[in-house]
């Protein structure tokens, strides 16, 4: 249950974009908008994770999007823990 570096980077970029473009009245201003759509879009690179890991990251991503006080560095560190050794050292050796 490891992630490739590109999956980690894609997840970070998607979460950053979703958090940057979110604001509390977005659903009012954009009829039909649901934060769940952004969460699911952010989860695409994590589809290889087990359902349990996906559920945990899905909840964290939702908080990262809607709450600017969340610890983004901890989220990034937790993603990087799941980086496969081949991804870390595959082309650098």
* Annotation field: number of helices: 6
Task: Report mean pLDDT, rounded to a whole number.
Answer: 93
Topology order in helix (H) and strand (E) letters: HHHHHH
> What is the helix fraction of residues, given as a range?
55-70%
Largest sheet: none
By DSSP, the count of extended strands is 0
Q: Report low-confidence residues grouped into runs of 5 or more.
A: none
Distance between the amino and carboxyl termini? 23 Å
Assembly of the depicted chains: single chain
β content, as a range?
A: under 5%
Structural class, by secondary structure, is: mainly alpha
Cα gyration radius (Å) = 14 Å
Count of spatially separate domains: 1
Task: Provide the fold topology.
Layout: H1 5-21, H2 26-29, H3 35-43, H4 51-66, H5 72-81, H6 85-89
Helix pairs in contact: 1-3, 1-4, 3-4
